[in-house]
Amino acid sequence: MPTSSDSSEGARRPSPTSVCSAAKHSSGDQEPILAKVEDGRRWWRFRMRTYDDNGQQDWWFAGTAIPLLAATLGPLANVLSIAALVSSWRECLVDPTVNDPARGYDPSVNPALCPYDGVSTLLPDLGGQPFDDPRWCYWLNVVSLILGFVGNLFLLLNFTNRIRYIVALPMTIGLWYLATCILIVITSCMNSYVAPIRPYQTYTQGFWYGVIASVLYLVCSMLLMVNMLGYFLGHYPQQFALTDHQRTLILQTMLFFIWLAGGGAVFSRVEQLHGATPWSFTDGLYFCDVTILTVGFGDLYPTNPIGRGLVFPYSVGGIIMLGLMISSLTKFAKELGSDNVVKKHIEKSRTRTIGRTVTSSMELRRRVEEHRPLEGAQPTISGPFDGVVSTTTVTIEEPAQGQWLRRAPTNAMASIRRVGSFAVSQASRGPRIARPKVILLREEKDRFDAMRRIQRGTAKFKRWYALTLSVIAFGVLWCVGAVVFWRAEQRSQQMTYFEALYFCYVSLLTIGYGDLAPKSNAGRPFFVVWSLIAVPTMTILISDMGDTVISNFKQGTFKLADFTVLPKAGIWREGLEKVPWLL
Question: Where are the transmembrane segments (predicted)?
């Protein structure tokens, strides 16, 4: 039985956390030694860290970028799943205005019969008459939509810390995998057992929305599995380390897709009741997409005063929400480059500069002695002697005071370059290794100026690196998107690949001439998804060009104006003084 003294001693026994805290606050001349205490459970190669683990985190892309990407694509998959549910998946392309009493068939009454005589002209894809799907297809589609919504809800509660990571994330992954499997089963069975009869029947936009939704659910599930793998391997604790504007991006994305889907429902209902041509939900979704993205092909537009009046508030609200979302995406893209590539670049530059720096002649001699065995070995008595003697040149750059700052030096000498030659015997005739220049930094200010130069170089590298990634993303979306549209629109409007490139370019720049627009049931759903990715990418590209190409063009314009239309006082004299032989 423990005594009171034992219990008091146990109460005074410090925990590992308190030991580390006490070591941090210990006083004295000796430097405290902190031992890393690993929290969490271990099993085989897995180490699950606790929620409040503040240790070092890596796998930044898996821990931060993947959850944000899943939070962006998840609501989009829900919207596409709604479009797949409320639309029939098959349609008849026989003209309903043709009523042949001999056949005893009126296509406007029962499009499912859809007899075709093989001679009549068929309607285009967007003008077909849809007919009902089997009941099993409809109810499985309902289950898939519910699973997708619940999975997205678990992900949102995970972001807001309402449900634990270890509970919410597996639920999201499992539910989205189930939604994917159900959609794959529906589309496969539809294509195998009740497929449309070609050429007078075809799939509607709803079928292709279901296909794209299943792909997005699958991609999101696989990405979140990578995130969970990083947690099991101990790369980050069981929480999403998101900043405030990253959480704002998630909220803005969800609100934007709610606005998009709600607008599609409202406009399709208004056109069904008061319009000249009834719209489906997929038509309303496409119209809202081209309206918010300011593409405006003109192939689909409101035909009644109510719909035209709703365009005023809806377009303004959608464009504002799109601008806010693109602004948050731009900040996130800059963080993605700054936290990984740029920091590694600046650390590499600092390390390389420090490795080339000497502060005295003694250190210079030591550096030369280190180079000596690398250039060649001394000949031995028993070995043959090679009489070739080479000269190794060590170049030292000694920057002047204020050379890297835009001000005149005070008590500094001009930039000095000292060259010392050292005789080194060369035992081998192998290729010589290029040596970097040694930088001589005597004063503290010289070292400060060197770091400033590294910072300026890193800022320039960051701008051009972001522009390079934006150009690559733009090129991929342009060329790959053109391939898809070329294949999708080839039957409907005999589109060539060059015309597809032209169409994608006009859409990316939001010009929207209207001479080409998606007219197939597969092209319109793909355009909705592609444009929601491509137009923000184009906006980010223009922003990156403003920091690089456009900025340099402006500086060049100002310099040209100083010499021509807006001459600066004394500019010609300064130019001639730089070339004294002209005077």
Answer: 59-86, 136-157, 163-186, 207-229, 249-267, 279-298, 310-329, 464-488, 494-514, 526-543
